Each structure stands twice: as C-alpha cells, then as structure tokens.
Prior knowledge:
The chain is mainly alpha-helical. It has four helices and two strands.
Amino acid sequence: MKRALYYLILILALVVVAGFALANKQWIAQGVDLSYDPTRPGSAESTLHLPMFLVLFGVLLIGMLLGGLTVWFKQGRFRRAARVAQGEVERHRSEIDRLRSQTSSGDGREGQTMLPSSVPF
C-alpha cells in the first residue's frame, strides 16, 4: 500500500513538473541571467547567462551536498558509538579466546567451562 501511494505521488509530481516545463518552455529555453555583483546587477562583467536546466541542476546538486553533509554530521555520534561497541566486542572476543585456551591447556578440567570470578554463579 505504501509503495502504491509513493508511485501515485511520484507520478502526480512528474505531471505537475512536466506541465510547468511545457507552460514555460520559452523561459526555460532562453535561460536566465545570474548576476554575482549586488552593486551592479545588470553589468556584463558580473552577469552569467545560463540555460535554466543548468541552474536547476546546480541548485539540486548543492542541495544534495548540503543535505548529505548535514546528515553525516548529525549521525557522527552514532558512528562513534558503533566504533566503541566494536572495540568492546573485539576485547571480549580476545578474552573469550584467552579463557578457552586456558581451559583447554590440559589442567585436568577438560569438558568443564571455567567462569571468571566476577560472574555470580
């Protein structure tokens, strides 16, 4: 059900975008003038004439990069916690291997498991 709703919304969004593009095809084909000097917005030295699709793709790319960086920074604490947990797992595995090697070293207790003294059994 969620997937069908997702595709329905996607198709409706594509129809709206295609309709907007067809209604404004002269504006999209002609392009836009981008001025990067706020003191002289109409001067030829500070104005770029670009097709609209390049402007839209550029804005989309910048938005994706900023969104990705934001998510990456916000999830840093979870990555750090995973690294710490992985270190603990490795430490516990090495301790288990050490205890198993002590158990199987031939001290007459083969078949019995030795527990550390901190386990309350």
